[in-house]
Amino acid sequence: MVEISGSSTSDGVVLDVNGDQTDPSTENTNGHSALNVPFLQKLLAELFGTYFLIFAGCMSVAVNLNFEKVVTLPGISMAWGLAVVVLAYSVGHISGAHFNPAVTLAFATCKRFPWRQVPAYIICQFAGATFAAGTIRLIFTGKQEQFVGTMPAGSDMQSFVVEFIITFYLMFVICGVATDSRAVGELAGVAVGSTILINVLIAGPISGASMNPARSLGPAIVSHKFKGLWIYIVSPILGAQAGAWVYNTVRYTDKSLREITKTASFLRK
């Protein structure tokens, strides 16, 4: 979800001295466009990052269901938030740590991520989430009626609105701390993880606080439970798009790129 590196945007696209974007992940040593090793490393980072995020978050739900609610809602919220923090700092500098198709699509529509990489990223995110849900199902063999996915607790409209708002909030924060050079980028992981924690705490009992189509689709495929699944695909995507575009509206600055970069470098010292 976030890029920790101080010299690049959220998608790993480096800005050169003229302000033009160059994408190092799509050029090989001869300068030809190719699906080369760096891009494959990004895909692996997204695959494993999404796997561990979904495993940690959904595992906290499974443990809570199987051991007399020892984790509780605050504990589940912390599990999701802390998982995002540690993974952002682990692989954020490799893939941007999206772990979420809605985030990837929002970056792409705002021209902060190359469209040609979107399908591969989304496939890896869905695969990681599905493998994680499958792992949890294998761990809790014999208790297959338990579902660690997301379903509306109230009406579909209530869950749709809640998912839209919390995903908007999440994407707005991501854009603010991870793509704006004026922000203190080293704290991006903490800010995004804290946002996840807050969202799960306030929206978990209502909609499950997905904010992520992969997080909902993976467990749904493994458990064959698809009730209300459209909500968790459509609403997060719309919310992330709105959050990204609204931040782009308020982020305007009359400073030049060189001035912004100089200020950001000073703050990081």
From TrEMBL:
Membrane topology: Multi-pass membrane protein
Name the UniProt record assigns to this protein: Aquaporin NIP1-2
A GO term from the CC aspect: membrane
The UniProt record lists the keyword rRNA-binding: no
Subcellular location: Membrane
Gene3D superfamilies associated with the record: Glycerol uptake facilitator protein
Entry keyword set: Membrane, Transmembrane, Transmembrane helix, Transport
Gene name per UniProt: NIP12_2
Polar residues biased stretches: 1-11, 19-30
One GO MF term: channel activity
Residue stretches spanning the membrane: 48-67, 79-99, 119-140, 160-181, 187-208, 229-247
SUPFAM superfamilies: Aquaporin-like
Main location as per UniProt: membrane
Region (Disordered): 1-30
Family listed: Belongs to the MIP/aquaporin (TC 1.A.8) family.
InterPro entries linked to this entry: Aquaporin-like, Aquaporin_transptr, MIP, MIP_CS
